[in-house]
Amino acid sequence: MRKNFLVINTYSSLAYQAVTVACGFILPRLILVHYGSAVNGLVNSIIQFLGVITYLDFGITAVVQSALYKPLAEKNMNEVSQIIASAGIFFRRIAYALIIYICILIYMFPNIINADFSSTYMGILIVAISINLFANYYFGLKNQLLIAADQKIYITYLVQIFTLIVNTLLCAILIECDMSIQFVYSATATIFLIRPLYYWMYVNQHYQLKKKIKLTVEPIKQKWNGIAQHIAAVVIGGTDSIVLTLFSTLENVSIYAVYYLVINGLVKLFVSSTTGFQSHYGMLWAEHRIGELLKSFNRFVWGIHTGVIFIFGCTSILIVPFVKVYTNNITDTNYDVPLFAVFITLAFAMYCIRLPFHLMVLAGNRYKATQTSYIITAAINILLSVLLVKKYGIVGVAIGTLVSMVYHTVWLAFYNSRHLIKWPLKKFKKRILVDCISCIPLFELIGFFELTELSYLAWIFLAVKVACIWGLWIVIVNVFFYPGICVAIWRKIKR
């Protein structure tokens, strides 16, 4: 049954990310065409500044989910109720803090950016974008975490797929009707309120929680030890745009947002493919089934590394041609920045390579023991980005992200090998060596493939050629270095 949940969760997550990526490309393009690069940069800056409030989360979301694995496995609903009650109190406090932060942001934001927009224009937009964030913290997040910890995260994905599609259609209609950007995001907030409402209804119907339970002790162990992991995640996902907003221009924020749109779609593809593994490994770890865990983890690492080299290898060749097509006829900003494309692709390739080790830390509930490394990762990212942005612009912030990710990937591999599941470090070293060997032809291929015309059809043909040639090379390398795994996969495909 557990494996069935893993499969369902993985495929539903992939479906959700596919819809997210598709919808994510539609709306920014419409915003660029109808409102311009400055408005697109403004929207992305506001989203990232609002994301700062998630620092107050202190990583409790991950800790809550990890804490729920054991009582759910033991069907101890009394302990589950205590954890959810404690989480609910905490998240409501964040919702109240968000209101104060929004008021501060409305006052301060016009004074910290270099843009020709009125304070009223930006203030209304900030409120419109923040509505859904408030609702999620106030009564949606605790229920979503319970569903996810119970390996039924596919339920949340189905709701999110529905709301994304409806929201995209509605927003596209409103934009084409020349509605204001504030009105468009107000409509978005209304649609997305469906999510927390549904989670609340589902939990009330399927879980016998004791809603009036009294907390005599703190039920969430290591409650404050997820802070470092959380800060690192927020920094990696949002610092670059904030640094560009403070030290550069909204046009550069827009350039970063367009490239990040592609990269983030790929990152979400990998994150979604690993979503079910965290709860799966959490259950195996809680039940002390280490042999089964190690075997699964070994295949998992191989799959992630192979997928990253293939997907991000193709991306390094195709991302600039795609951005040229995507921003065709948009002349207010130059979006052709190949050096930035290389560094941002490398940075988030490393982010994905570290995922198996990061998820094992979460599944093993090792927040306190690993928090220093997460803090160092965040510090490297921020310091290098701020130091390099003045001289190198968006390339500088990408370099900062890359260096921090290289450090953290190596550190997590060492920690897992020595202190957690004892996965042999020599396997990680071999995997990195194979990755480097795989990437050698990239330097030649980047200059070999060129886009013949600025159209999506031409880009698709180019992508097919790149994927076939690059995919064949990846297969050859893996057959040579990992023949056992390749034979097992081939036999499974034949069956």
SSE succession:
HHHHHHHHHHHHHHHHHHH
| C-alpha termini separation | 21 Å
The main β sheet shows up as:
none
Radius of gyration over C-alpha positions, nearest whole angstrom: 23 Å
Shape: globular
Strand content: under 5%
Q: Which spans have pLDDT < 50 for at least 5 consecutive residues?
A: none
How many helices?
A: 19
Q: From the helix content, strand content and strand pairing, which structural class follows?
A: mainly alpha
Describe the fold and architecture.
The chain is mainly α and 495 residues long. 83% of the residues lie in helices and 0% in strands. It is built from 19 helices and no strands. It has helices at residues 2-35, 37-51, 60-73, 77-112, 119-149, 153-176, 181-192, 194-206, 227-247, 250-286, 290-326, 338-353, 355-363, 367-392, 394-419, 425-439, 442-448, 456-481, 483-494. Helix 2 (37-51) packs parallel to helix 10 (250-286) and helix 10 packs antiparallel against helix 11. It starts with a helix and ends with a helix.
